[in-house]
Design a protein that fits this description.
single chain, alpha+beta, 7 strands, disordered C terminus
Length: 287
């Protein structure tokens, strides 16, 4: 009996030793797994930190690329000493050229040619929308970027006078509407006479008469029709640029005229186009 009890104790002790060893082994394995898990967690955090830095660098590079692209779009280029324009302005000019007669567009060989076509198109559009009716006494000619409007003498002045008649204002009002519609325009008012000499107490000769007439028109445009004076030029041509022979009453009447030359200031014209681009962009962002 004692022998059996001793054997039983030995067996229980042996079993308890085996269970304790397995337990210790499992504890160790559990510790190792926790350690690996902690290492993985630390490694993951390090990777996330590195990824964040890389993403920040990518975002910074993208911002630089966008800034360079924007800078390139705004980069100014001198076009054959005529105007300064950016890539944005050129893009807008190309949009305008889509409306130009293809036959005219095919003759544009240089950037300046294209620029002239775009300006001429806008000027012609402005004139056509101004309700100016052409007649024998009122003629409009558009040549490239210059608009020339010729007004017969009797539509503006009394014979031999530089004082504007009552008929002048409706005509000058239409002209002022055209001039004021486009901030980039400059206007030269030329007085022309026939070849007959004149000499009065107030007018020395045809030079004097032609200059006085152009000055009268300029003053009226400024004071009554609100045309900015810095856009206006008054000049007299006397009788030295006739459009007909001074050999008949009808031909002399043709030579007595006021010519309005509308010139776009190309630098201002394309600067305004660029400003419009910026205004559109700002409006888009604000919306």
């Amino acid at each position: 009996m004692k022998k059996i009890s001793a054997l039983l104790l030995i067996a229980i002790f042996a079993l308890s030793c085996v269970s304790k060893k397995k337990y210790m082994a499992l504890e160790q394995e559990n510790g190792e797994i926790k350690s690996e898990l902690q290492k993985s967690k630390v490694a993951n955090e390090n990777l996330e930190a590195k990824f964040s830095k890389i993403q920040a660098r990518v975002d910074a590079y993208n911002s630089k690329i966008e800034a360079l692209k924007e800078s390139n779009d705004s980069k100014l280029e001198v076009v054959e000493n005529a105007a300064v324009m950016s890539n944005k302005t050129k893009a807008r000019m190309r949009e305008t050229l889509k409306n130009v007669d293809p036959a005219k567009l095919s003759n544009a060989k240089t950037l300046k040619d294209s620029m002239n076509l775009a300006v001429a198109y806008n000027l012609e559009k402005t004139i056509n929308e101004s309700n100016i009716d052409e007649s024998e006494d009122f003629a409009v000619d558009i040549n490239k970027t210059v608009v020339m409007i010729s007004i017969a003498d009797d539509m503006l002045f009394n014979t031999g006078s530089y004082r504007l008649s009552s008929k002048a204002d409706p005509v000058l009002k239409k002209l002022a509407d055209v001039i004021n519609s486009e901030p980039s325009l400059e206007v030269m008012v030329e007085g022309h006479t026939d070849s007959r000499s004149i000499n009065t107490t107030t007018i020395a000769d045809n030079w004097d008469l032609s200059v006085l007439r152009s000055t009268s028109v300029v003053r009226r445009l400024q004071k009554k029709h609100n045309v900015a004076p810095e856009k206006l030029i008054a000049s007299g041509r006397s009788s030295y640029q006739p459009i007909a022979q001074n050999d008949s009453r009808e031909n002399r009447a043709k030579n007595r005229r006021t010519r309005i030359i509308i010139l776009p200031n190309l630098n201002k014209f394309f600067a305004l186009m660029a400003e419009n681009d910026n205004s559109v962009a700002e409006s888009t962002i604000s919306n």
